Amino acid sequence: MSAALFGVLHAANIKPSPELAMGVTNVMLFGVFIGLYAAREGSLWGVCGWHAAWNWLLGLGFGLEVSGQVIETKPLILDLATRAELPWWVTGAAFGPEGSIVTTAVLLVSSIVLAVRGRSEDYGVSGAVTSATTLET
Q1: Could you give the 3-state DSSP secondary structure of residue 66?
Q2: Residue 38 and residue 32: Cα distance in Å, rounded?
Q3: What share of residues in the chain are helix, strand, coil (percent, to 5)?
Q4: CB 119 within 8 A of CB 39
Q5: 50-69: buried (b, 16+ CB within 10 Å) or exposed (e) per residue?
Q6: Cα–Cα distance, 121 to 28 (Å, whole number)
Q7: Per-residue pLDDT tens for 88-137?
Q8: What is the DSSP letter of 4?
Q9: What would the DSSP string read from start to end of 69-101?
Q10: Phi-psi domain of 96 (left: phi exceeds 0; alpha: psi -120 through 50; beta: other)
Q11: pLDDT digits (tens, 9 = 90+) for 39-68
Q12: 10 Å Cβ neighbour count for 108?
């Protein structure tokens, strides 16, 4: 449910178009991915990092649209402005890379890997807990 809501909240960013449909689908897939990631890690910090890094790199770092929003500034890293000669489903066109079939593939594979691997049993802290417990006893 949260992944669907996350996608729908991005649905008004550009006029209805095929890239909007693909973009909203990918935003929902990203919601699934970050939900699985948060469940595996037992924390929202990684999710916050993923979302902030993605938006920052696309918009400010590479000068690309972020969910259909144009960032009006010179790219800080490299200008990767959408190339008109490539089909919209490769670049995401007006929605940005989030509307690309490449993003769909990456998110599907990543979500499947996280779903198969399941939750980290100790959320990655067993060594620290064991060491601290040993020191106390």
Answers
A1: strand
A2: 10
A3: 65, 0, 35
A4: yes
A5: eeeebbebbbbbbbbbbbbe
A6: 26
A7: 888 888 888 888 999 999 999 999 998 888 666 655 555 555 545 555 55
A8: H
A9: BPP-S--SS------TTS-HHHH-GGG-GGGSH
A10: left
A11: 888 889 989 998 899 889 988 888 888 887
A12: 14
**Backbone phi and psi for residue 69, each to the nearest 5 degrees, phi listed first:** -95, 130
Q: Structure tokens of 41?
A: 């890690």
The CA distances from residue 96 to 71, 75, 131, in Å, are 11, 15, 46
Return the structure tokens found at 118. 């399941």
Q: How far apart are CA 115 and CA 110, in angstroms?
A: 9
Tokens at residue 123, please?
A: 């959320």
